Amino acid sequence: MMKGFLDRVRERVRGAGARIVLADGSDPRARDAAAALAAEELARPILLGAGAAPAGVEMRDPATDPRAAVYAGVLHDLRRKTGLTAGEAAVRAREPHWYGALAVRQGDADGLVSGLASETKPFIPAFSAVGLAPGITRASSYFLMVWPDRVLLYADCGVNIAPDTSTLAAIGRATAATARALGLEPKVAFLSFSTRGSAEHESVDRMREAAAMVRAAEPGLPVDGELQFDAAFVPEVARRKCPDSPLAGAANVFIFPDLNSGNIAYKITERLGGAQALGPLLQGLAQPVHDLSRGASVQDIVDVATIAALGAVSRA
Prior knowledge:
The protein is built from 12 helices and 11 strands. The protein is α/β, with parallel strands linked by helices. The protein is globular.
């Protein structure tokens, strides 16, 4: 299913011309990924940095591009109430990840992918420049965990450290919406060390209450919690522990109690479970912005940029 899933995503974006910024243009992996995106017509990559551009790739150098002066003014207007000076805005607008986020805000690009270097993480620029989508009060992130025969979504593994009940519910609904946008039918499990009251703790209560909030807001969405992972994922365990669960041990969207558990789980799943881990992918923003692991391969970058392109095409 991995090849099939990613192939379906590629088919939806091929030739659509989504302009995706790759902010880490000095990294050979980003350059190779930009060349592949252009060659396969998965996106119109905009590579940030100096030097010659790969074939079919637009190259912009934020240090010299005149658009950076315009972006600096936009950023200053956005952040002056927080104390950002015009001079500070001018400096930031020429940093690749800030430049890329501002290009997306201004409609000069359709999405941003960044994060191969620790200093180019896109979170703060995305939140400050791109902003939240209408009706969204909290951004979050998810990982796509991809195998040949299945695709799972894990959230939140990269943004919200210790989410409260309402934030957990928002993460659950946002990740379900993301799954739908990817062509999947979401079945959402709120995970815990407890299943249906087998243990008591305030963290258990949060997951149970968050699941109830989502169920009330979206009665047609299959959602359950609190559940242990095996009760959410293994049908025979679900039949024993929670026989009336609407998930029936077939969850594909997993909401973790906090960033510790989510981050640990995705790395274990990747390293021991053999999954391809794509992310952290941001959700809840006005335009697609996604992070990259510092250890991302060229193919990982291509796949994340393709998912960003899908987000842009879906909004068009």
